[in-house]
Write a structure and sequence with these properties.
single chain, 455 residues, alpha/beta, Rossmann fold, Helicase, Ruva Protein, domain 3, 4 domains, five-stranded parallel β-sheet, 16 strands
Length: 455
């Protein structure tokens, strides 16, 4: 086990951490100041530093930040975990920019702290080997993810290596690239695979229902609370929670999410008892979160909390050689489901490779399914795909029907209904056509009592 250096001016904190880490099997060295810590770093082989941000009467965090910079200049690969008070999280965010691996707030959750230490140590192992598809399939369970493109294999190699840790993962990529599939694959290759994989579409939860949905509620805690409800974080205990479309979460609920991620505790609505949940968080978005941070639409501290590891899935346009593999896989599944033996010509596969696929894998899959279902031939040709694509494009260029004279609220409701009908219940497209975010669109669905079943 690695040797850990604990740097904190509080004797009680040092002692508490020493006992906790000793119980977990680690050897520790203690220092009450950066000066003492520096001497230990020079004389001992340290695998990780736990560093308090404030010393003595100094509360600006400058001393802690200065020492962090010093550590990173001398030992750039040494893992550092910062400890700070909840009100000083901005200090920890600065520390992350200077190279810290993670941060924890006081008071900490013991099991979460030990997991954080183990994760940081695991990630610090400098293993840069990349696997072939054959090697990946031997080592991990990625059977649902089709492709052999080097960019995809690089992502899968990293995903496989970090799956066994508890590192928070942020998955980036355009809509339809398979972010949820990758999140589930990380879960299936982790020690949590026999526990729940809880999917949450944050773009589909209104701001007023966030706490009820995520933390749960007791019967009678609010007007419509007819029964007790178990929240998503409780369902994800010992498993993985997947927060899709995290960029859609409004600022007020970002604070609530951050608090849960800090110490893995929360309160059920209508109850004063604090519950603890041991979950791994994987998030995904098709938005540029750094840009949202710069626009003050996404909290910087939350951004650093969720992206200890970032995986960016390439678009289908960036991996054209995978298109025939995907097409054949989709066709095989359809043949199996419908007891048919339809094939696809080489020319058709080359035609599919030449398309732009702005809807990525989802668009490719939908097109193949449509052509398969209407085809009476045993081999799918270019003409079949061109005819279907032309039909889809014609439908998509039609204008929304005109609306007669109504009240403003009636107009808004009808526009929402017509947008949903026009875009076949595709919430993303309906919202975009009205100039709304998904979150704003869902708030209008709730406001007007409209239901939607997305495919």
């Amino acid at each position: 086990m690695a040797t850990i250096l604990i740097v904190d001016d509080d004797f009680a904190v040092r002692t508490s951490l020493k006992l906790l880490l000793k119980k977990a099997g680690f050897t520790t060295f203690l220092a009450e100041s950066p000066f003492e810590a520096q001497k230990i770093l020079k004389s001992e082989k340290i695998g990780l530093v736990i560093l308090d941000m404030n010393f003595s009467m100094e509360t600006s965090g400058k001393e802690g930040l200065d020492f962090l910079k010093e550590i990173k200049s001398q030992k750039p690969n040494l893992s550092v975990i910062l400890i700070t008070a909840w009100g000083s999280i901005s200090l920890a965010v600065q520390g992350m920019k200077f190279g810290a691996n993670d941060f924890l707030s006081k008071p900490w959750n013991n099991s979460h702290l030990v997991q954080t230490v183990k994760t940081a140590l695991s990630l610090s192992k400098n293993d840069t080997n990349h696997f072939s598809r054959k090697d990946l399939d031997k080592a991990y369970n990625f059977k649902k993810i089709i492709g052999e493109d080097p960019k995809l294999l690089s992502i899968l190699t990293t995903a496989g290596k970090i799956a066994e840790t508890n590192a928070s993962v942020l998955i980036l990529g355009e809509s339809g690239t398979g972010k949820e599939l990758l999140a589930e694959a990380i879960h299936q290759n982790s020690q949590r695979k026999n526990k729940n994989f809880v999917k949450v579409n944050l773009g589909g939860i209104s701001s007023t229902l966030f706490e009820s949905e995520m933390f749960g509620h007791k019967k009678g805690s609010f007007t419509d609370a007819k029964t007790d409800r178990i929240g998503r974080f409780e369902l994800a205990d010992e498993g993985t929670i997947f927060l899709d479309e995290i960029g859609e979460l409004d600022i007020s609920n970002q604070v609530k999410l951050l608090r849960v991620l800090q110490d893995r505790t929360f309160e059920i609505l209508g109850s004063s008892k604090t519950k603890t949940s041991d979950f791994r968080i994987v998030s995904a978005t098709n938005q540029n979160l750094e840009e949202l941070v710069n626009q003050n639409n996404f909290r910087e501290d939350l951004f650093y909390r969720i992206n200890l590891i970032t995986l960016k899935i390439p678009s289908l346009r960036e991996r054209p050689n995978d298109i025939p593999l995907l097409a054949k896989s989709f066709l095989n599944n359809l043949n199996e489901s419908y007891k048919r033996e339809i094939q696809i010509s080489t020319k058709a596969l080359n035609w599919l490779k030449s398309q732009s696929w702005f809807g990525n894998i989802r668009e490719l899959k939908n097109l193949i399914e449509r052509v398969f279902l209407v085809s009476t031939n045993s081999i799918l040709e270019v003409e079949n795909f061109e005819a279907m694509q032309s039909s889809i494009e014609k439908k998509s260029t039609k204008s929304l029907p005109e609306i007669g004279a109504m009240t403003l609220e009636e107009i808004e409701k009808e526009m929402v209904q017509k947008a949903l009908t026009f875009h076949k219940n595709n919430v993303s497209k309906a919202a975009k056509s009205l100039g709304l975010s998904r979150a704003a669109f869902y708030r209008r669905l709730e406001k007007f009592g409209l239901a939607v079943n997305e495919d």
